[in-house]
Amino acid sequence: MNTSRRPVGLRRSSTVMATAIAACGVLGPITASAIDVEAGDYTALPDGTRAFVLYGQYARRDAAYADGERLAISPRLRSEVGIARYLQVVRIDERWTVDPQVLLPFGHLRASQDLGPLGSASGVGDAILATAFKYKIDPASGEVFGFTPYLYVPTGHHDADKALNLGEHRWKLALQAAYTRALAPNWRMDAIGDVTFNGRNDACRAACGSTTDATRRQDALYSGQFYLRYDPAPGWSTALGVSRSWGGRSRVDGVALDDRIGTTTVKLTASTFVTPRLQLLATLARDVEVSNGLREAARLNLRAFYLF
Fold first, then answer.
1. Contact status, residue 98 vs residue 131, Cβ threshold 8 Å
2. How far apart are alpha carbons 177 and 150 in whole angstroms?
3. Which residues pair with 90 in a beta bridge?
4. H/E run at residue 203
5. What is the number of structural domains in the chain?
6. Is the model more confident about 306 or about 259?
7. The pLDDT value given to residue 86
8. Which of 135, 152, 183, 248 pairs with 175 at a CA distance of 20 to 30 A?
9. CATH number assigned to the domain comprising residue 146
10. Do 48 and 148 contact (CB within 8 A), yes or no?
């Protein structure tokens, strides 16, 4: 017996259509993720460094997919999301450092066209507590292995009667490992992998197509990222990256949704130190393959990294 559910009712009224899309998982993940690592993030910082980081992300989604096929609808979902991040580097010994940090997302989501009835959402997302452990394999060349657990705390704004929310109303734990090394003069690579374990949302109404509280569970979500970096001049860095996310199938009150994530994204990054303590970074990204969910037609990430 096949208990999976696929998007239905796509030719009904716009309100019912949007609700069906949300309930069947086509919206997919719509908020910024701290695990979306930028090139060079696992570079070992000097002992005792403190940093304040501010991220800004604009993303535009313009197509919906199910089982790898584009649906005959016109969804639009725009997001303007920021993250405020503080970290400090604590020396353990000559090779090991630990970077405790806290992150707070915030922003705005706005749906239009076939998703218009979903409206918009603004506010603060779920707080994230993280601790990055870095081992300097070769301090001279900058070869580093890193490991970071992330704990997502359900402190963000969540309205169960709205399909769009920045808070997820559930706990999450992510484990991430990374390796970075030099390949040749001015060339480096970053390889990152992670897995996210999702707690349950027991107050899922509008997003689950229900008028009463439903329970949404989600399988583990996996991702891998790879960057090839080139430093054309001191203080400057460019990178070409690719990422792949898969897994994360959902169940609502025990009924499985046919919403497994399978997304491939390409990225182009450039960064520079405008002062010895301030680095600015910009990343352009676009989804090139989507199995289920909304496709990001364009994404712009901006980051200001201030050391003190």
1. yes
2. 11
3. 98
4. strand 201-204
5. 1
6. 306
7. 98
8. 183
9. 2.40.128.130
10. no
